[in-house]
Amino acid sequence: MASGQAEAEGNSVTTKTWRFLVTQETGVAASILALVVIFSSLQPLFFDSGNFLNISRQAAEPALLAMGQAVAMIAGGFDLSIGGIMGLTSAVVAYAVLEIGLVPGMVLGVLLGAFVGFVNGTLIARYRLPPFIVTLGMLSLCRGLAYIMTGGMPVLNLPDAFGYLGGTGHIGGVPFATLIAVALFGFLYVLLTRFKFGYDVYSIGGNESAARLAGINVVRVRTLIYVISGTLASI
């Protein structure tokens, strides 16, 4: 009896281990590890702490975009407008920083990204328009507005403190941009796994009709999802 139970538990552990090893996430992690080994063997300087910190700084921006996109995809949607939001808020923040100061200009940019996300979410959730059409149209609108504002030219003479946040700044040797990305990743992880909003997001992505019948305010949750995506794109 005891031996049979022990064998069953052993088979259960083996099955769980096998399922973990064959997941998509494990495959991605293994691929990244293999690339690190290959590049380190070809160029010894690749396996250097300074290089990894530099890579983390460069990856912070696409990581923020991916976080917002991930939340939208978990709920069964997607957001094509994040590139346009990033471009428009960059132009607005650049001019705002020159006119009204660093902190007010940055706050204005984040609020603008949240507002664009709110418009996306309202059109998609309340008026039932397809996410593809709404976010693709918003991408073109934001991109066009950015070109109109800047004339296709870079905005110059920004203060040094502005570059500190996204480029030259660091705390304890870790780039400031990396710290921002890690902090927001932790915040999103806790939000999606420890709070009701996260369970609502997963429920809507699994079955929107069932989520609505279960009492979830689908319109509000979907709208907040796109607000989060727009805010992360603006950051």
Please, could you describe this protein's structure?
It contains eleven helices and two strands, in the order αααααααββαααα. Strands 1-2 form a two-stranded antiparallel sheet.
Summarize this, please?
By secondary structure, this protein is mainly alpha-helical.
Structural class: mainly alpha
Number of strands: 2
Shape: flat
Q: Round the mean pLDDT to the nearest integer and report it.
A: 90
Distance between the termini: 60 Å
Strand-residue proportion: under 5%
Strands of the largest sheet, in order across it? 1-2
Describe the sheet with the most strands. 2 strands, antiparallel
Helix content: over 70%
Low-confidence stretches: none
N-to-C SSE string, H for helix and E for strand:
HHHHHHHEEHHHH
Q: Cα-atom Rg, whole angstroms? A: 22 Å
Count of DSSP helices?
11
Summarize this structure as a short list of keywords or feature phrases.
235 residues; flat; mainly alpha; two-stranded antiparallel sheet
Write the layout of secondary structure elements.
Elements: H1 2-21, H2 24-42, H3 49-74, H4 82-100, H5 102-126, H6 131-150, H7 160-168, E1 170-171, E2 174-175, H8 176-194, H9 196-206, H10 208-213, H11 218-234
Antiparallel strand pairs: 1-2
